[in-house]
Design goal:
Length: 170
């Protein structure tokens, strides 16, 4: 057997059951009974399977760290918590709550930043806007610090709730 064949066998892609008579509940490893339900002790895969506790903790932390990483990847800071919500929110209540909390905080930050810009632009006619426009940059920076604090607290197992957040998504 060549090295390529051995490498391919090490990471074999599971096949799906074939349609037709006698194929119900079949799998490559034979781990399913006739009704298509897993046997005792067999791993359960799919969207209804509970998350591994370590993976759940990682997703909860990722919900809070992802806006910081998103800044480096283009600035769309609400995409990180949204992706975490889609990845694990349906399988874990903790992941859902933390991802929605981070997402609501990011939506609040975006609304506040746009509001400061829209208020500062007309105020530039009377020169006050040149001072208030700096808030449009300070709000997102403060939000990133708050996300970092949230991630550190959650990683340590402590509860965290974002300050000044509108609960838009529930």
């Amino acid at each position: 057997m060549s090295t390529d064949d051995q490498h391919r066998n090490d990471r074999e892609i599971p096949s799906y059951p074939q349609a037709g008579p006698g194929a119900q509940g079949a799998s490559p490893q034979g781990s399913y009974q006739q009704g298509g339900h897993p046997q005792q002790g067999q791993p359960v895969y799919g969207n209804n399977a509970p998350l591994n506790p370590e993976y759940e903790r990682q997703l909860v932390c990722a919900a809070h760290w992802s806006p910081i990483a998103s800044v480096l990847l283009g600035g769309m800071t609400f995409f990180g918590p949204l992706i975490v919500l889609l990845m694990g929110g349906g399988r874990s209540r903790a992941v859902r709550e933390h991802a929605i909390d981070a997402l609501n905080f990011q939506i609040t930050v975006w609304i506040a930043t746009v509001a400061v810009i829209l208020i500062s632009l007309p105020l530039m006619l009377v020169l006050v806007g040149f001072v208030t426009i700096w808030l449009a940059g300070l709000i997102p920076l403060a939000a990133l610090v708050v996300h970092g604090l949230a991630a550190i607290k959650v990683a340590a197992g402590e509860p965290y709730s974002y300050p000044f957040t509108w609960r838009i998504i529930r």
